[in-house]
Amino acid sequence: MDSTSTRKLGFFFSDHHRWLLQHIHKRLRNRADAEDTAAETFCQMLGARVDPDSIQQPRAYLTIIARRLIFDRHRRRQLEQAYLEHLARLPEAVAPSAEEQLLLIEALVTIDQVLDGLPAVVKATFLYSQLDGMNYADIAVKLQISERSVSRYMKQALRQCYLCEVRA
Amino acid sequence: MSGPTLDRISEQAIDWMVALRAATPDEALLQRIRLWLQQDPAHQQAWNRLEQRLGHPLAALHALDQRAPGQAAEARRLLLIPTRSRRDVLGAMASLGLFGAALWGGWRSDTTQGWLADLHTGRGERRSFTLADGSRLSLNSASAVDVQFDAGQRLLVLRHGELLIQVARDPLRPLRVRTAQGQVQALGTRFLVSQEDDATRVVVLQHSVRASLDDGRWLALQQGQAALLHPNAIERLNDEQQQRAAWLEGRLEVLDQPLHVVVDALRPYQRGYIRLAPAARDLRVQGVFPLDQPLQALAALAEALPISVEHFGPWLMLIDLKAP
Predict the structure, then answer these.
(1) How far, in Å, CA of B257 to CA of B285, rounded?
(2) Residues of B in contact with A159 (CB under 8 A)
């Protein structure tokens, strides 16, 4: 990204930061979380190389990104917490080391992000295949769908994987 | 199929992958895929991109499954826990203008509940509020309270965390604190209520309160007394509990407690997850620790006890017995 557009985003940031922060704060009612989320909103714009001049309605635009981040933040925490609690209950002999736990949670969150938005049955199909290693005939029985549907859902999930830019 | 269009080669790569995963592949299928990959470097590229997208994450989960069978299935279970789809959530928000409390009632996350509560504190934050009747309410870190005052009652609902209240006198409107286990009623007094995992802790600092369970059983507690409200019983606590109010001054005072209790008290102040190895849970601790510097508090613990404290990024900390 060249410095001109970075600078333009900087101006955009200072023009709208106050409003955005108030807007998010109303929803989160927590100053620190609101500041984090506002910062993330702009990081997303930077990462996506958005040209501020192309934004017709800045507030509507920022609201959409911020809402998604508020939801992501919640979902990610929920997943991390649930998995860490599960890992903490594993017997010591097989319990993953702290470094492994980091990797495992990253793995889980990445998969969750990649599959985000797919219908539950499509996610289930994909995970039975990829995590449990089941063949399509068994998945069809398990989910009470046809084998054709299993193929179709696999394709839908793989397409999304292929297209997905994993969010940091 | 809907969605953004892909180029022909990417679509082919996906089709091959779908075919490959159908069942244990036979040699004929493998041969056809090999041929396709060799036809054009672009084919190989598209294939690699598809494999890399989820290759590492899946491999990590499989590796754990090898050692502790059933772990891949557990990961699948977590990933399939139904969450409202993003669109549903956003739709709900939009229709309400902002987060409406009632609609989200079924949502169990403490964080979300905190956002929705009337008064709440974030991680590492303590705050005091003066309520409409003049009562002074203090919230410990990561706590949330709903305030329902009207002509006939003064009700505080402690959704999670810990509160300390200095109640303003109002004989006509008793002040009650509701928790998951029961309620605590007071007239002109100062007391502490803490929502713990499966119980509510009540510590009376001045005068007296009446603590009751939902089934009507109750216990009067005088100044200096404390009790735990369990779902089916009220347990009177005979050891010293007054020091539990020290958080108001930013201190954690520990007379003689197992390490896991001390770590639990620090958790709301520390971002990320603290994993305490079972072997270290019951080490006895005493001392005074700064709540606002949980890292310093943990460092002090590591000096006093035979434990090691390791950090892995901002959101994971491992406490274990020091290797001999």
Answers:
(1) 5
(2) 1, 3, 6, 14
Tokens of B240: 């010293």
How confident is residue B291, by pLDDT bands cut at 50, 70 and 90? confident
CB contact burial B45-57 (16+ within 10 A = b; e otherwise): ebbeebeebbeeb
Chain A residue whose CA is closest to B119: A29
Among B6, B49, B313, the residue with its CB nearest the CB of A102 is B313
**CB contact (8 A) between residue B57 and residue A106:** yes
Q: Which residue of B has its CA nearest to A128?
A: B76
Residues within 8 A of A (CB atoms), B 253-312 only? 273, 275, 277-278, 310, 312
Query: Which tokens belong to B106?
Result: 């079924």
Report the alpha-carbon distance of residue B167 to residue B246 in Å, rounded: 18
pLDDT tens digits, B46-94: 988 888 777 878 888 888 888 888 888 888 988 887 664 444 433 333 3
Q: How far is A131 from chain B (nearest CA, A)?
A: 6
| pLDDT (tens digit per residue) in A23-78 | 888 877 777 677 777 777 776 776 677 788 888 888 888 888 888 788 777 777 77
Write the CATH number of the domain with boundaries A1-95: 1.10.1740
Torsion over CA: B1, B2, B4, B5 (sign) = positive
Strand pairing class (B316-321; B273-276) = parallel
pLDDT(A137) > 80: yes
**Residue in chain B nearest A164 by alpha carbon:** B53
Instruction: Return the pLDDT at B314.
Output: 53
Chain length of chain A: 168
Which ipTM was obtained for this model?
Answer: 0.71
Rounded-to-integer distance, Cα B152 and Cα A9, Å: 54
Find chain B residues with C-beta within 8 A of A67's C-beta. 90, 93
**pLDDT on residue B100:** 30
Q: Residue B245 carries which DSSP code?
A: G
For residue A146, is it left (φ>0), alpha (ψ between -120 and 50) or beta?
beta
CATH architecture of B250-321: 3-Layer(bab) Sandwich (3.55)
Report the top-level CATH class of B117-242: mainly beta
Burial level of B35, CB count in 10 A (0-12/13-18/19+)? exposed
Shortest Cα distance, chain B CAs vs residue A7, angstroms: 30
Between residues 128 and 167 of chain A, which touch chain B (CB distance below 8 Å)?
A: 128-132, 135-137, 151, 154-156, 158-164, 166
- Predicted confidence at residue A59, as pLDDT, reads 86
Contact B183, B174 (CB under 8 A): no
Contact state of B83 with A78 under an 8 Å Cβ cutoff: yes
Quick one: CA dihedral A82, A87, A91, A92, positive or negative? Answer: negative
